[in-house]
Every structure is written in C-alpha cells, then in structure tokens.
C-alpha cells in the first residue's frame, strides 16, 4: 500500500510565533531542528524558515533582534495528511502538513530523501529532485554539453533563468564553468573558486557522471561565497586596525593591562613594564588572581571590576615597592556581559603636578554650582509646592537663597500652611541634597522618650533599651539635614541640650560617656508664638536666637486666595491618580471652595479634595457633595457681601437680603421641606416667600 504524507511526517512540528524574535529561531536551529513553521495567533502557518533562509538573511545584515517576519519565506506550499509524498513539490526544504486546516506536522527534505531511497526512486528522478531541493546551485549536462538540470539556486546565484539555460550548450551560456573539460579529461575538481562578472564569487565541485564505465555527462555543485570573501577581506582590514591599535597602546605613557571577562591576562604595554617593574610574563597568560597570590601585585582592580561591573579606581602596590593609582574599566558586549577589562596604571607622584590645576578646576566648578543654584530659585513648582501669589513667590525666593548656606532656618506659620514642604524645598536645593533628610515631630513623641529619639542611647542605658543601643536623630542626620517640626513643644530640659548640640555640634547618648561629633544642618518649624512663650518662661531665649537665624513666615491660605485654585487642581490630579478616578469639579462647587476661609489651610484643602473624590457619586463633583461647613460659610457671606444704597428704606433692604439668602439656600437643597428645616421655618412659610419673590427650587 502506498504511503501517505501522514505516514512519513514529523508529528510534532517546530513552530514560532510571527511576533517572536530571530534569536529564538537561531536557538532552535542550533538545536538541530531542520525546519521551522511560523504561525499567527490563529495557529495558521504564515511562513517557513530553514538554515539556508536564516544564513542568507543574516548575510544581508538583518539584525537578530528583528521579528521572524523579516526573514521568513512567505511563499510556500502546504500539503495535507491524506496526500502522497509526491505532492511535496516546490523549491523548499520544509512542508507544513494540515489536517482539517490544523497544523499537525511537517515533512522535511531529509524525510523525502529517505522515502525516495526506500521506494527505489534513486535514478534520474531522485537526482533531479535532489538538485531542485538543494540549497546549493546545481548544473547537470549530458555528454554533448547540453544543460539537463538547472535548479532554482543556480538561477538565483548566476542570474540566468531556467528557461534560458535548459536545453542550451553550457559553453554558450555559462562558459566559466568549463564542465566539458571534466567530460573530456574524466577529471574531478574540488573547491575551485570562480570569479563571475557581477563581482560574485562561487566555489564549486565538478565531476563527471559515469554509467557502466562510460562518461554520460558532468555535474557542477556550487555555492555563493561572496559574503565569506567580504568577511575575509574585513578580517584582513581588522588585522590592520589591530596593528594600528597596538601601536596606539604602546604610545601611551600610562601603563596599560588588558584581561578578558574572566580576568585572564591578554596583553600589557611597555610603559607598564617600565613604570611598574614587571614583565609581560608576570601577567600575560595567567589569571590576575594568580598574580596576586604570587605577590606580583598587592591587590587587583580587575577582580573588583568583574565583581562590581563598573569602573573602579584603587591605590595599588606592585612588587611591594611603588604605589600607583590604578583604574579598571569594563567593556561590555551586546548581551551586557563583560568582554574585556582595561586597566590603566599611573605613578601617583605624577599626579602632584596636576594638583594646582585640579584646585582651580574645583573653584570653577563651585562657581558654576552656585550660579546653577541661583537659577533654580526661579522654578516655582516642586512636588506639592504650587502657587501664584506674590507672597509665596517671596517665600520661595527666600527659601532658595537660604538653601545655599548651612545657616539654621526657623519656619513659622499656622498649622497646615506647608512648613514641611518649604523644609523639603530647602533641603532639595542645598549642598546636602544627596545626604539624609531626617524629620522629627517634637509634639508627636512623649517627653520621656524624646531625648532618646534625639540623641540616642547606649547599651543598657535604661530598662527596655536595645542591647546594642540606638543612634539618635542627630547621628542619623550626620552630613545631612535634621528637620525639627513643632519645636515649640520641646520640654525646657531638652531645650538646653539641644542648644549645646546646635552650638558645638557635639552630642552625648543617654548613658554614654564620650561626646560624638556630628555635622548637621538644622531646620525648625512651629505654629506657636515663640516670643510669647519666652515671656511666659516656656521657651529659652538663647535657643530661640540660635534657631531664628533665617526666619521664614508662611502666610495662611486665607491671605493668599490666588493659590487656592492651583492647589485644588494639584490635589484633584493626585487623588484621581491615587484612586484611579477621573473626577472634576463643577464651577459652582469651585466657587464655594474659593470663598471658604480655610482655617486648616493647605492640609484642610487637601483633605477636602480627597473626601470629595472618594464620596461623590458622579464624575462631576457638585455643590450637594460639599461638606455642610462649606455651604454654611457661603450662606453666611451673603449678608456680609450685600451692598445697598444708604438711601434705601429698611423694609426694602430686609426684603432684598431675604430674597438673596433664600435664593442661595434653594440652590443647595432638592426639596422645600429640606430647605425649610435648615432655615428653621415652616414649609408653608417658605412656600409663601418663594411665591412672593418669584423664586424657583
């Protein structure tokens, strides 16, 4: 019984998705896969890829990080499981096999060859098929020189069509191949290079075809090696560049040592041998760790670079005599792996000549830094700090100026005005911006624990103390900034210790005997009147003067109404992002917010906006969603804001005020009963007044 395609196919097709990268194909083909089918999201074959297709694509310079669609063969034949192997035609090396329009396997060229051999089809049919499916160019002539077989790859390499070649004498069409000489001389020629007219280079194998000791033709199998030839030329050019690079390395006055990604020595220049007193044999051809063990060098920057994966500079002794400044720099390949480590070595004494220039350079850098910091004062938005008022503009300008120096700042203002934001602004623009920023709320910690928090304690200082002791906020803020919020809540006994710590920059832990030197910039804040507290004996005058070097008083929100709308917009964006909402405020609701006096300042405004985003039911926040305190505040302002003519009669004034008052009230409530209840009148009374003033609910 004749075999079907299903009997000879491979049942587990190798597939990739059309959105996979070429690197995935390379990995599969390296595993020995003969052919790959590219499928789409519907599991439908949309292309095929083989070794030859991949090689040709890479030779064209297609990057390996491209999608497989850039290299796959889109024109291909599919076969069905019930068909016979003879259906596998077309010049391809893998055929997708479908059953009920589903991919169930593949047939490869190797599978077909095995099938042909088993079924005895090895004669002319087999030879012709082998030629057609070969990834090399194949030309077969008969004993008279007529071309009998001319495959697709031959057409592609030579640029001569099959129709023009078949049936013609080879010497007329393709004289370069000299196949008639193989018939005449009965010779086989292997690996001969032919240079064709279009700058194509091929390497070919030519041999006669014998049948019963008689020469009946000749065959030529060839492949295009133009790309390889180009690579070979590039290699020669690379050798030339490497020679030039060697000359450049030798021209350096600094010592240079190069290792591979494992720390294996590859080369050193003569300068290193001269200044360090080592030979090439000490370092080349051995791991740097071995050189350290043998005492050739005291430590290795190469080992540190391989471990840290970054440029490293160390001071190193070589053979125990001289000290050098050594810098190792990693060189990464395209996969992020260290390929080389380049180390430069310079005698430290040579650097002394550069000290003067370095000092001048540092002074210039300092000058540029100060200029940059002055420019930054014009940036009037940082995090939660947004404003439009001139008052806040002056505050920010003062904070930016104060940031450039380590002088103590005292931030004054009501609760919720944003003292912590100004403190963060000063820190962020200061010279200590890359060091720690420690915050301590003096009013949030019990007085009995506050000293331990500020100054720390030693082991066993008191019952419940940690066995290892604990550093205080001053130590944690060393080299950085310490923000003491609510400084007015600090007990008198701690004010003395804090004063000495700020003056001398020396602290003592609880239970400690040795003073600890610290370097801390102090920012303090309070909402209390420290001068009144001084008069009452609640705050030390000397501490006040020590803190009050740069006082910054932040005005309450009611004194800068221009800032309310920008703050509303900021907090609305933040809360929408936080809760994944897209709420907006109606203009009438915004008017209520703008007219409110905000006794809780910015903190209250932020909390109100958050509440509105969370509790409002629709996308638009309306007046009805506002807290009652805001609505009452608006109603109270009706009488305050009413303007009337001094010649008006009392009754007219009263009626006008009553009408406006009722109009504002009715805007906020959906029913007369609800409005009457709030106003403290009967439903019928309110109805009569609505008719009287011709108002609408």
Question: How would you characterize the overall build of this protein?
Answer:
- Keywords: Activator, Aromatic hydrocarbons catabolism, ATP-binding, CBS domain, DNA-binding, Nucleotide-binding, Transcription, Transcription regulation.
- GO terms for molecular function: ATP binding; DNA binding.
- Residues 9-64 form the CBS domain.
- It holds the Pfam family AAA_lid_14.
- Residues 123-167, 241-286 form the PAS domain.
- With 697 residues, the chain is α/β, with parallel strands linked by helices.
- It folds into 6 domains: 5-118, Roll (CBS-domain); 136-228, PAS domain (Beta-Lactamase, 2-Layer Sandwich); 254-353, PAS domain (Beta-Lactamase), CATH 3.30.450.20; 377-555, P-loop containing nucleotide triphosphate hydrolases (Rossmann fold, 3-Layer(aba) Sandwich); 558-638, Helicase, Ruva Protein, domain 3 (Orthogonal Bundle); 642-693, Arc Repressor Mutant, subunit A, CATH 1.10.10.
- Helix content is 42%, strand content 20%.
- The protein contains 29 helices and 27 strands.
- A 5-stranded antiparallel sheet has the order 8-7-11-10-9, with helices on both faces. It has a 5-stranded antiparallel sheet with strand order 13-12-16-15-14.
- Strand 5 (94-99) and strand 6 (102-108) form a beta hairpin.
- The longest helix is centred in the middle third of the chain and has 26 residues, at 226-251.
């Amino acid at each position: 019984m004749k075999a079907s395609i299903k009997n000879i196919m491979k049942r587990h097709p190798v597939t990739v998705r059309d959105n996979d990268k070429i690197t995935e194909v390379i990995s599969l083909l390296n595993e020995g896969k003969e052919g790959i089918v590219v499928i789409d999201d519907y599991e439908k074959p949309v292309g095929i890829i083989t070794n030859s297709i991949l090689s040709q694509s890479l030779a064209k310079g297609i990057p390996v990080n491209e999608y497989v669609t850039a290299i796959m063969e889109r024109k291909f034949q599919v076969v069905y499981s019930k068909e016979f192997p003879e259906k596998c035609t077309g010049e391809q090396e893998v055929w997708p096999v479908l059953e009920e329009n589903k991919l169930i396997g593949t047939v490869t060229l190797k599978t077909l060859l095995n099938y042909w051999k088993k079924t005895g089809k090895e004669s002319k049919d087999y030879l012709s098929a082998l030629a057609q499916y070969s990834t090399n160019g194949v030309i077969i002539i008969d004993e008279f020189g007529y071309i009998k077989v001319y495959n697709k790859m031959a057409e592609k390499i030579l640029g001569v069509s099959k129709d023009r070649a078949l049936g013609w004498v080879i010497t007329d069409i393709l004289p370069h191949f000299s196949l008639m000489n193989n018939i005449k001389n009965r010779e086989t020629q292997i690996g001969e290079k032919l240079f064709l007219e279009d700058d194509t280079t091929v390497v070919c194998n030519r041999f006669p075809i014998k049948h019963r000791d008689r020469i009946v033709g000749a065959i030529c199998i060839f492949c295009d090696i133009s790309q390889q030839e180009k690579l070979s030329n590039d290699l020669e050019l690379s050798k030339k560049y490497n020679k030039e690079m060697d000359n450049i390395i030798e021209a350096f006055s600094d010592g240079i040592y190069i290792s591979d990604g494992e720390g294996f020595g590859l080369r050193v220049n003569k300068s290193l041998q001269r200044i360090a007193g080592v030979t090439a044999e000490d370092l080349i051809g051995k791991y740097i760790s071995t050189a350290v063990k043998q005492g050739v060098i005291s430590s290795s920057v190469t080992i540190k670079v391989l471990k840290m994966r970054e440029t490293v500079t160390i001071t190193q002794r070589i053979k125990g005599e001289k000290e050098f400044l050594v810098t190792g720099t990693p060189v990464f390949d395209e996969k992020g792996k260290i390929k080389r480590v380049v180390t430069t070595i310079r005698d430290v004494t040579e650097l002394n000549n550069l000290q003067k220039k370095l000092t001048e350079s540092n002074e210039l850098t300092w000058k540029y830094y100060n200029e940059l910091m002055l420019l930054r004062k014009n940036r009037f938005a940082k995090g939660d700090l947004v404003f439009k008022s001139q008052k806040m503009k002056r505050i920010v300008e003062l904070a930016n100026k104060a940031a450039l120096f380590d002088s103590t700042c005292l931030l004054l203002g009501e609760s919720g005005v944003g003292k912590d934001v100004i403190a963060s602004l000063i820190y962020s623009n200061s010279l200590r911006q890359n060091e720690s920023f420690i915050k301590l709320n003096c009013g949030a910690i019990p007085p009995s624990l506050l000293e331990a928090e500020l100054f720390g304690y030693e082991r066993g200082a008191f019952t419940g103390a940690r066995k290892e002791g604990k550093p205080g906020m001053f130590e944690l803020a060393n080299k950085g900034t310490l923000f003491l919020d609510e400084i007015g809540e600090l007990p008198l006994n701690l004010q003395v210790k804090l004063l000495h710590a700020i003056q001398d920059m020396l602290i003592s832990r609880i239970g400690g005997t040795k003073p600890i030197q610290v370097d801390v910039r102090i920012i303090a804040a309070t909402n209390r009147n420290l001068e009144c507290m001084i008069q009452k004996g609640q705050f030390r005058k000397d501490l006040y003067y020590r803190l009050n070097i740069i006082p910054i008083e932040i005005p309450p929100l009611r004194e800068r109404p221009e800032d309310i709308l920008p703050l509303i917009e900021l907090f609305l964006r933040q809360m929408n992002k936080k809760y994944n909402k897209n709420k907006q405020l109606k203009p009438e609701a915004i008017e209520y917010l703008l007219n409110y006096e905000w006794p809780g300042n910015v903190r209250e405004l932020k909390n109100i906006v958050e509440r509105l985003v969370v509790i409002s039911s629709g996308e638009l926040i309306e007046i009805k969603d506002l807290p009652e305190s805001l609505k009452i505040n608006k109603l109270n302002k009706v009488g305050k804001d009413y303007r009337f003519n001094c010649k008006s009669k009392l009754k007219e004034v009263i009626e006008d005020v009553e009408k406006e008052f009722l109009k504002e009230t009715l805007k906020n409530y959906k029913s007369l009963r609800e409005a009457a209840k709030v106003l403290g009148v009967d439903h019928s009374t309110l109805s009569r007044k609505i008719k009287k003033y011709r108002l609408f609910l």
